[in-house]
Design brief:
single chain, 409 residues, mainly alpha, 17 helices, 66% helix, disordered N terminus
């Protein structure tokens, strides 16, 4: 199958005039917490020709996290600016672009790639900066994401796909990849910006392992009108050969995937695996109930045909069992969480009761130590009867205490 060319890795063409130090200093890293444009530009220059030890020490000192935090702050500021309170400054855009370029340079190091993969929101932060709607910034973002797609790691492609899908929710897009296609639709867009955007789209599609996944991603772009955009590019002679080549890559790979699906014998398609693929595509989305209803309608539509019924009924039963299994798992998790909470409550109550018992034992011991020791067998002497001189002697009968004994201590 025809594959898109991977973006070339940036390699130094000449040695620096003065090699950078063996590692970033504390002051160097501190400046990046609130960077100026000059700070980020210096970092990019240092990353162009670093010694391996300097780059690795920068990554080890959470350099990737620091750069992502810069982008996150700039992205959030841009979202606020869109509400009309203020406008996005040229300085913010410039700092964002240089930061993206720094991360692109760090992809030459495996430890930096691993750091990006650990941050599940890394791609959504990077791609979210497209909200600034700046051509050169968009080009830098697409070059970075295309390079990340081509990393020989399935997790990298999944991370990029997940990050782009999360933008749909964050920016309330009707369809995922809307922000990407909007770059292609923008009037008077520079040829280099279109090239970087199409290169990213081709990389995102072609690096998916399964043909069904490639077709599904491509179909999302088709639904957004990319075919008419590509046709318009082909008709315009002022665009560069490199851009025309990127268009050809998209079209040729689409033909290759369609051919791959067409030559697959129908009897070799596993219907259960097909249903699992469909379920995976709508799992956890608002379309899931509609999908179940759709299958139910198909069962009713085919009910008059015995063969059709035997095809659709098992699939529907499979989905019902799958949903029931999910509900059972959810119930088990809720029950377990409830039991754990109850156990914690009982532990607290038990500790409270133990403290109260210890306090009672301590109080009883202190009281017993303060009381005179009387033998268990010795009866308590009765108090003398009231004398006749008392005016209340006739009213108070004599009380005998001979039957009382003190408890043994």
């Amino acid at each position: 199958m025809f594959q898109a060319r991977k973006p070339s890795v940036v390699t130094p063409t000449k040695p620096p005039a003065k090699p950078v130090e063996d590692g970033p200093s504390f002051a160097y890293m501190s400046q990046l917490l609130k960077p100026t444009l000059a700070d980020v530009q210096k970092l990019y220059t240092d990353l162009l020709y670093p010694t391996p030890s300097w780059a690795n020490r920068f990554i080890a000192q959470e350099g990737v996290t620091v750069l992502l935090e810069i982008l996150k702050k700039k992205k959030d500021r841009a979202k606020t600016a869109l509400k009309g309170t203020f406008s996005i400054s040229g300085s913010d855009i410039a700092v964002t672009e240089e930061t993206v370029r720094c991360i692109r340079q760090l992809l030459n190091y495996q430890s930096a790639v691993e750091a990006l993969l650990k941050k599940k929101d890394s791609v959504s932060i990077i791609a979210g900066c497209l909200i600034m709607d700046n051509g050169t910034l968009s080009r830098a973002i697409f070059e970075l994401l295309a390079a990340l797609c081509t990393v020989d790691n399935g997790a990298a492609h999944d991370l990029v796909l997940h990050g782009m899908s999360s933008l749909k929710t964050e920016f309330e897009e009707p369809v995922r990849f809307t922000s990407v296609v909007n770059v292609l639709k923008a009037p008077d867009q520079a040829s280099d910006n279109l090239i970087s955007c199409l290169t990213f789209i081709n990389a995102l599609i072609s690096t998916a392992e399964e043909v069904h996944t490639r077709m599904r991603i491509r179909q999302d772009f088709i639904n957004l009108g990319i075919l008419s955009i590509l046709e318009d590019i082909k008709q315009r002679s002022e665009f560069s050969t490199q851009l025309q080549s990127a268009v050809s890559v998209f079209e040729e790979e689409m033909k290759e995937d369609k051919h791959e699906l067409s030559v697959t014998p129908p009897e070799q398609i596993d219907p259960i695996e097909l249903v699992r693929t469909l379920c995976k595509s709508v799992d956890g989305t608002a379309q899931h109930p509609t999908f179940i209803t759709f299958l139910s309608e198909l069962v009713q539509f085919s009910s008059s045909h015995a063969e059709g019924h035997t095809v659709w009924e098992p699939l529907l039963e499979f989905l019902r069992k799958r949903d029931q299994s999910r509900e059972d798992e959810k119930s088990k998790e809720q029950l377990l969480a409830s039991l754990q909470k109850e156990v914690e409550t009982l532990k607290v109550q038990n500790q409270k009761v133990r403290r109260e018992l210890d306090e009672l034992r301590e109080a009883y011991s202190q009281k017993a130590m303060a009381s005179p020791m009387v033998p268990h067998s010795a009866p308590v002497a009765a108090p003398p009867p009231p004398t006749g001189d008392s005016p209340y002697s006739a009213l108070i009968p004599p009380v005998s205490y001979t039957h009382l004994t003190l408890p043994t201590i």
